[in-house]
Amino acid sequence: MLVKLKTFSLQGIEAVEVEVEVDMASCGKPNFTLVGLPEAAVKESTHRVLRALQNSGFRPPMHPVVINLAPADLPKQAASFDLSIALGMANLSQTLDTEKMARYAVVGELALDGTTRPCRGVLAMTLATAKSNHLKGILVPLENAGEAAVVEDVEVIPISHLSEAIGFLSGNLTIEPVQGHAEELFAQNCQYDMDFADVRGQELAKRALTIAASGGHNVLMIGPPGTGKTMLAKRFLTILPPMTLAEALETTQVFSALGHTRADVPIVATRPIREPHHTISQAGLVGGGSPPTPGEISMAHNGVLFLDELPEFNRRTLEVLRQPLEDGRVTIARVSRASTFPANFILIAALNPCPCGYRNDPRRTCRCTPVQIERYMSRISGPLLDRIDIHLEVPPVDYQELASGRPGTSSATIREQVLDARAIQTARFRRAKARYNADMNHRQIQAWCKLDTEGHRILENAMTEYGLSARAHDKILRIARTVADLDHAENILPDHLYEAITYRTLDRKIWNE
User: Global pTM?
Assistant: First the structure.
C-alpha cells in the first residue's frame, strides 16, 4: 500500500515542495526505514510519530514501512515532517480521502500525545502553496495559523491534534479555514511608541537624518558618550515611510524562517531595527551555517541596522558588509547550494571620536595619545567609510536645551517631508531599477544630478581640499539631489551642494588630524 502527501522543506527563507511517500510491505515484522537525506531531527521523527499514533488511539503499522522524502538529493531538516509522515502511516489502512490529500499540503511537528507544535518557516510554506497549481490549502499547527493566514487565496486549516488532521482528511470532521486579516493586523500593529520630539536639541542631527530617510542614505554619527546618538538612531524608524504590506511580508518571511514570529502578532508591521553586539561573528551578521540561515542584516531588511561603538566590531566582520550595502542582498555559497537573502537596509553606525570618547569635547579633557587615536580609528576601513553616505557630528547638548520644556521637532513633521521627497523620487525612477537617490548608478547620477558652472567649481574645490575619492564624489551628488528634493527644487543649487559636502568632510577631519 503506497500513500503520497505534499509538504515543504525550508531552504534558507524559501520553501521547497517535498513529496512524502509511505509504503508498507504485505508481510514481515514491523520496522521503519526513512530515506531521502533526512537530518537528525527528521530521522527521529519515526519514534515521535509512532507514539503519537498510539497515544491518539490509532493502530501503528504491523509490517515493514519505507518512508521516502522526495526529491532524494535535497537535505531535509527540522521536525515539520512529523504530521505528514503520521498521516501517511494512518492512511495505510485507506481511511483518508486520497483526492483531498492531494489538494492540501501538511506541515507540523508532533508531541508524543499527538498534539501539534509550531514550526519555523510556515509563512514561506504558505506562500509556496499559493504559487502551486495543484494545491488548494495547507494544514498547519494551530499556533502557526495566524501567520499562515496573512497569505490570501490559500485555505489555512488549523490543526491542534493529530486526530483532527485525520478527521479532516477523512471527511468526518469539518474545520473552517482561518480567515486572513492581514490588512487589519497590519493597521493595528504599525504604530511606534517613540518620537523624535523626545530628543531635545540636536536639530542639525535631525536634519541630517531627515535627508538620510528621504534618500535612503547610510549614516555615521560621531560624538562623545551621552550626546543622544542611540536615541536618534532608535527613533529613525519613526520618520521612515510606513511599511507596505508587501514589505511586511518580505520581512516577516525572514523572521518566520528563524522562528522569531509571535502568535499574537504574526506579521512584522513596523520597520525592524537590529542592534547586534560588537562581539557578533561574521555568520551572525550576514548569515551562514550549513545549510545557510539569515543573519542580522537580513532581519534588518526594509528597516535599520544600528551598529553602536563601530570600532569595537571585528574589522573582518565589518568588511563583509561592503557587498550587501551595494547590492541590497547577500549570497551565502556552500558546496551543495547557494542561498540568497534580502538585505535592503539603512545602516546607522555610531562611534566615539577616540578611545576615551572626549576628543574635541569642550567640557572634558581627552587623555588619548595620537597613536592610540590612530589605532582606534584604523579599525574602520576606508572602503567601508566610503559606502556610508552621511558623516555626522553629534555634539553635547547645552543645559538650557535639556531644561527647556519646548519639545523637539516631532516625527510626524519630519515624516511629511520624507514622504514628499520620496514621492518625487518615485516619479523620477518609475522606469528605472533604482528606488531612492542612494541607489542611483553613475549613469543616473549624470542624468539627474547635473551642475551648473558654479556647482562644478564648488565640487572641484571640495574634492581637491579634502582628498575625496571618486565614490565620495558620487555620494555628494546623491545627497545633494536628496537635499534638492526636500526643497522641491528641480536642479541642484549651490546651497544644496554645500550642505551635501559638509556630510562628507567629517571623516577626513577625524581620521586625518
Answer: 0.91
